[in-house]
What we know:
Elements: H1 14-22, E1 26-27, E2 29-34, E3 40-45, E4 48-53, E5 56-63, H2 67-72, E6 76-82, H3 87-92, E7 107-108, E8 115-116, E9 121-135, E10 138-150, E11 156-159, E12 162-165
Antiparallel strand pairs: 1-11, 2-3, 2-6, 4-5, 5-10, 6-9, 7-8, 9-10, 11-12
Function: Catalyzes the NADH-dependent reduction of FAD to provide FADH2 for the halogenase RebH.
EC number: 1.5.1.30
InterPro entries: Flavin_Rdtase-like_dom (IPR002563), NADH-dep_flavin_reductase (IPR050268), Split_barrel_FMN-bd (IPR012349)
Amino acid sequence: MTIEFDRPGAHVTAADHRALMSLFPTGVAVITAIDEAGTPHGMTCTSLTSVTLDPPTLLVCLNRASGTLHAVRGGRFGVNLLHARGRRAAEVFSTAVQDRFGEVRWEHSDVTGMPWLAEDAHAFAGCVVRKSTVVGDHEIVLGEVHEVVREHDLPLLYGMREFAVWTPEG
């Protein structure tokens, strides 16, 4: 499939940018948080990266209209890195399902108390918000990692608008 972009120097549309980023495969995460009323919120996210090792910090980019972002602004959030069998969770948390947490098994993490999708995530990071900044229609949230849970499993990937599974050589 050939994707054509505007000529250099021309205005880049949201569709152009989305098509470009679809060519960059990445892992799939579900960002979780609990609002002031104790209600869990979550959304599928592929805009996640490590920032620094000292202190251990990562960033996520969340849509400003997201209910999950509102809960994250409470000061803590969880990052659930989905394993190869976590596609259903990725789909549930990327749609307008009313009770997303009723569709998956989850529990409160030990240190931060954030929702951990224990059956769908091969890794979990509990984070404390250190800084956030608005850029366009998204907010970049920097979280200092205070908790890590890991299991050995193959990650779920997303690229070219499709889910895939890592298949290591060897």
